Amino acid sequence: TEYGLITLLGKKLFPHEFMNNLIRQAFALFAVTVAYVAVGAADASPPASHYTYVIVHGALGGGWAFREIDRLLTADGHKVYRPTLTGQGEKVHLASPEITLTTHIDDIVNVILFEDLKDIVLVGHSYGGMVITGVMDRVPERIQHVIFTDAVVPDDGENFITAQRSIFDGANWEVKSGFVMPPAGSTASQPIPHAVPQSYKTWTEPVSFKNPAAKNLQVTFVRFLDEGQTVESKLYYIWQRAVARGWTTRTMVSDHNAHKSHPKELVALLEEAPKDRNKEPNQASEPTAPSGRGSP
After folding, report:
1. pLDDT (tens digit, 9 = 90+) per residue, 108-149?
2. Which side of the chain, N or C, has fewer Cβ within a 10 Å radius?
């Protein structure tokens, strides 16, 4: 029969001892393969964390200023939102002297809610520190980590001017028809995108920072410093305020606009900072003597 012929051929071609050796070799090869895979898995670095960033720009600016930061973070697998605040950037057609800090806080809160964002890394630059403080107070449950990048750090009830006490010292900030005007030479003679006037009420309305859940969020404060500059020489009271709250403090060599001058270095920092963890808050009294000039 056909079965008999196949059996006979198998015995001729594959004697018993040969088959045993073949099976042993197959099992040995399987064991080596499994061990190799196991060792490789143990040695492999854990996959990099991917975050959802919501970045809030500074005064007189727009989301456009963080285009390169968006590109670099997105290339690393992160998701980035860089909304423009009402009346700024491409929303300049909505400009009004009646726009307030609350308007700008609503801008960011609504992006978070309507995009249904959770576990976000909230980033605020300069004046953006006022906005993200209000966002922290409103939707702390949506926030994984907060990063203040050379930003103002207000207490409850402070506005941008009182929180950054020396902002008008020696600076040519002109207020005209209810708007803070950009410094001379930064608008009309420059191609779009460029700085635009901002409602003065966004600088004078106090922020709310009362929510206990907001005060328990993990926060990193980053001070940008010129080469050789110390934290004591640049709005030191803001640095001390961050320390007093138990936040992680970092420094980075850069001018005030690291997103333009040092984008790669800033992106590396933004990717590291969400791993920072708060320390025990320092209950020492708040320093009162400001040092250095501010920038919005």
Report:
1. 999 999 999 999 999 999 999 999 999 999 999 999 999 999
2. N
